[in-house]
């Protein structure tokens, strides 16, 4: 176990300014994507290089169909549970009112608490971030058939930095697919290589921005020219996969998703892992911190300790098969 000081990080100069009176522009990333780690590499080195250069990986067959079935049953339980629905930690579709996201699932569900500490996820996250890790945010995303709405282009880090006070780009997301993620049912769209540039966004951060931004984000989004340039340089990839796959992507990767007008619902479980040395401080804006269910601030538990408490059985390596998804592959998937 690596040692990281547990004191709150001091607020330093803001190296990633955004919003307010600033105009849109792109800044080059000046921190690593893959941090030095003394641990054994849990996947092929070629995949680490792909993640470093492109900002994401798609790992197939990480979880068995039996495991995925158990996850799906837990998602259904949470979505229909009256206490969960009344908790204020559920986001609904802006038009239909259907459940879109359930947050803090690693704390409210024993099934997802075990999943958050599964070595198939945490070993890779810890290796890439080169530090002890904790769950910054967790959620179930559900995009219903016919009426699942889009979510516009954004960098998670821009929001986590400005509104949560995350100091640097030393975090990543892991999305476990619970249904087929097809090119047609509103999958996650990624711009490869966009994690190497930080897009400064325009506009003031409204009070209690989180109440609307999680349904439809209108602030903290990039300007059209920046997205156009990033896409022109690197293309756009649809992160497709069968149930039980894991999509790993850097906190600063530009991503979004389109509407789902097909009959085929899409659902995923997300865990955001942050380096313990990178835990949040005060927001880099003039707004109070977002609620705890969106950003772990008071309840930070290093996952090395969480794993010891859970004592999960060893489940093997990170993935049975892996695809290096490229722009040309995404086009082939559409055919």
Key traits:
four-stranded antiparallel sheet, alpha+beta, eight-stranded antiparallel sheet, Jelly Rolls, 335 residues, disordered N terminus, single chain, 14 strands
The major beta sheet can be summarized as: 8 strands, antiparallel
Find the CATH topology: Jelly Rolls
SS-derived structural category: alpha+beta
Number of domains: 1
Give the helix proportion (percent range): 25-40%
Write the layout of secondary structure elements.
Blueprint: E1 25-28, H1 45-54, E2 56-60, H2 65-80, H3 82-85, E3 90-92, E4 99-103, H4 105-108, H5 110-116, H6 119-129, E5 133-143, E6 151-155, H7 156-164, E7 171-177, E8 188-190, E9 197-200, H8 210-213, H9 224-234, E10 237-238, E11 246-250, E12 254-257, E13 266-275, H10 303-310, E14 321-323, H11 327-334
Antiparallel strand pairs: 1-9, 2-11, 2-14, 3-4, 4-5, 5-13, 6-12, 7-11, 7-13, 8-10, 8-12
What is the gist of this entry?
Helices cover 27% and strands 21% of the residues.
If you had to describe this structure to a student in words, what would you say it looks like?
With about 325 residues, the protein is of the alpha+beta class. It has one domain (about 30-335): Jelly Rolls, CATH 2.60.120. The protein contains eleven helices and 14 strands. The protein has helices at about 45-55, 65-80, 80-85, 105-110, 110-115, 120-130, 155-165, 210-215, 225-235, 305-310, 325-335; strands at about 25-30, 55-60, 90, 100-105, 135-145, 150-155, 170-175, 190, 195-200, 235-240, 245-250, 255, 265-275, 320-325. The strands form three sheets. It has an eight-stranded antiparallel sheet with strand order 3-4-5-13-7-11-2-14. Strands 6-12-8-10 form a four-stranded antiparallel sheet. The longest helix is centred in the N-terminal third of the chain and has 16 residues, at about 65-80. The chain is globular. The N and C termini lie far apart (about 45 Å). Residues about 1-10, about 310-315 and about 330-335 have low confidence and may be disordered.
